[in-house]
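Hi support team,

I've been running sequence recovery on a batch of backbones for a student project. Most finish fine, but this one hangs at about 90% for roughly twenty minutes before it completes. I'm not sure whether the input is malformed or the queue is just slow. I've pasted the structure tokens below so you can try to reproduce it. Let me know if you need the job ID as well.

Thanks,
M.K.
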């Protein structure tokens, strides 16, 4: 029996609203304080006594969350429904209360931390894990207020990336995140955060030697959140908590994932998380088994596991970050073809796009195709898959031919190993930015090939950059139709609306113009760097690839600012950016007479 049933609805209704409002403010402040304590604990050097004090304060905040939960439960109209809706919060607070009771009985689960400072670490992780979970739930509740802000979905998406970049920059500047004395400089932290959030891979630091394990974990989190999208995470967990998703919030995901309808976008959310985690963890497990014996971390299971997870997440999200100075071109990886093939496959899967993965591997889709074998994939799936296959094959063959000539990087590679390196370069150039060869040793024709592949990029709704395979296919189709003097675009037994073609033209024109303009500015700012290297770097940044011929390290702050802006614009999407900045257009109920303009 609830409090309302015991004492009457009208009596408690008077105090319910102000009390719950006060509790909301208390939980919000408690969340901020809890996050601050976690940042201070993991980001700054501390004595054991100081760590103990932080744990005590964190426990006090968990007590505040527990008290707030009990009060909200007492005021709930239906206690059982409240517990079901708040199941995750109930579990976290239940674990905290159970451990506290167990400790009072003299048998704490993790350690007698009050008497032995040496055993503080396991309990500290336990407390902070609970605090992270509860703080995350509160932040998700607060994120639902984003839909009330009068911003376009595309603009809200941009703001979410800017906020994530800012948080990542601040975390990377903490003293415990790098091996440098003091902390990582702001310029390097900002560039690294932008590159990770925009899943590019360009860097002004050696990630493996500069960042500590904590810093690498922050980088990994930025890659994951930037790859899938912070709003996608927030929306999924809002659904998981049964809080519902509004039309505006669904529209953000629809724009971000390039879905055809709001219903499809909402349905895709859970599948995004499932496919990402399943493929990343599955890939990490296979990578773990494929490290060569010469690997420096081969006999350290924990380091080996972390390196496997890091490279799997970086590959699937098309980020291109590696924990090694020479990337995957390190000498101990020269004879690891299985590892390279696995990473290339993760790159390809991540670059196809989540809607395509759902159409290819979704349970209902597979079942439907088994029952009706004549039913084809969606047109967008066919475009993404077959265009990717075509570009992979052409890129592999042409790269192999160019680099096996005199002075090429594959001159002394023969047979299977040469094909693996060529295939990896073709897959990585379109989206990821990993390298198994020295990019600076590529010849001019090879660099032009790589620029072409980088410019096209991966599939729509994927973690890849570039103008996307669908845009490239529509442009080729439009050229072919014009040459044949056809007035209608047709593909796969379907007519292509001209508004889609106009979007493709817009994306191509914007991307080409932006790259040309930035390359022109970089040529002025960095006259000592060859123009080919500057164009290569700009295309790599804008198309969020991450391959580099070295200019990033040599550039001044102005040149790096151009690259950071290019990574952001390329990640958010040229068309999304245009929609976000455009003003509302008025409906035109009239048309002008047709004009004839000479072309060519």
């Amino acid at each position: 029996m609830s409090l309302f049933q015991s004492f009457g609805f009208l009596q408690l209704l008077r105090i319910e609203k102000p009390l719950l409002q006060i509790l909301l403010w208390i939980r919000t402040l408690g969340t901020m304080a809890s996050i601050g304590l976690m940042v201070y604990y993991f980001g700054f050097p501390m004595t054991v006594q100081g760590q103990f004090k932080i744990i005590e304060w964190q426990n006090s905040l968990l007590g505040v969350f527990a008290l707030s939960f009990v009060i909200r439960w007492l005021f709930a109209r239906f206690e059982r429904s409240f517990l079901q809706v708040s199941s995750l919060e109930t579990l976290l607070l239940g674990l905290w209360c159970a451990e506290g009771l167990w400790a009072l009985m003299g048998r704490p689960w993790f350690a007698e931390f009050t008497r032995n400072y040496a055993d503080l670490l396991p309990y500290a992780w336990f407390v902070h894990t609970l605090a992270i979970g509860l703080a995350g739930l509160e932040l998700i509740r607060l994120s639902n207020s984003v839909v009330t802000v009068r911003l376009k979905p595309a603009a809200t998406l941009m703001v979410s990336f800017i906020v994530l970049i800012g948080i990542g920059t601040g975390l990377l500047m903490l003293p415990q995140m790098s091996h440098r004395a003091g902390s990582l400089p702001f310029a390097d932290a900002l560039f690294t955060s932008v590159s990770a959030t925009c899943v590019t891979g360009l860097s002004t630091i050696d990630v493996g030697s500069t960042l500590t394990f904590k810093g690498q974990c922050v980088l990994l989190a930025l890659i994951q959140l930037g790859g899938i999208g912070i709003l996608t995470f927030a929306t999924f967990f809002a659904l998981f908590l049964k809080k519902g998703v509004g039309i505006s919030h669904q529209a953000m995901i629809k724009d971000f994932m390039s879905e055809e309808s709001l219903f499809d976008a909402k349905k895709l959310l859970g599948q995004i998380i499932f496919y990402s985690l399943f493929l990343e963890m599955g890939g990490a497990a296979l990578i773990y088994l494929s490290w060569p014996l010469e690997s420096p971390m081969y006999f350290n299971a924990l380091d080996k596991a972390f390196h496997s997870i890091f490279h799997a997440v970086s590959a699937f999200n098309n980020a291109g970050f590696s924990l090694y100075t020479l990337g995957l071109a390190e000498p101990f990886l020269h004879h690891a073809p299985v590892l390279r093939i696995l990473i290339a496959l993760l790159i390809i899967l991540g670059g196809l796009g989540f809607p395509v993965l759902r159409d290819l591997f979704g349970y209902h889709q597979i079942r439907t195709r088994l029952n009706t074998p004549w039913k084809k994939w969606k047109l967008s799936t066919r475009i993404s898959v077959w265009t990717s296959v075509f570009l992979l094959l052409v890129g592999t063959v042409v790269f192999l031919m160019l680099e096996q000539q005199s002075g090429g990087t594959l001159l002394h590679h023969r047979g299977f190993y040469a094909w693996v390196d060529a295939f990896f370069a073709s897959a990585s150039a379109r989206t990821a930015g990993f390298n198994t060869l020295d990019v600076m040793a590529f010849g001019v024709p090879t660099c032009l090939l790589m620029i072409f592949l980088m410019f096209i990029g991966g599939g729509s709704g994927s973690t890849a950059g570039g103008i996307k395979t669908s845009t490239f296919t529509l442009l080729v189709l439009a050229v072919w139709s014009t040459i044949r003097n056809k007035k209608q675009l047709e593909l796969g037994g379907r007519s292509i609306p001209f508004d889609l073609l106009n979007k493709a033209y817009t994306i191509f024109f914007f991307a080409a113009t932006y790259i040309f303009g930035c390359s022109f500015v970089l040529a002025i700012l960095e006259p000592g760097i060859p123009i080919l290297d500057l164009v290569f770097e700009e295309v790599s940044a804008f198309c969020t690839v991450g391959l580099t011929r070295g200019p990033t390290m040599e550039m001044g702050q102005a040149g790096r600012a151009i690259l950071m802006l290019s990574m952001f614009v390329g990640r958010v999407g040229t068309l999304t950016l245009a929609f976000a900045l455009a003003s509302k257009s008025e409906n035109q109920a009239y048309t002008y007479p047709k004009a004839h303009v000479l072309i060519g």
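--
Follow-up from support: It reproduced on our side and the slowdown came from queue contention, not your input. Confidence is low (pLDDT under 50) at residues 111-118. No action needed from you.
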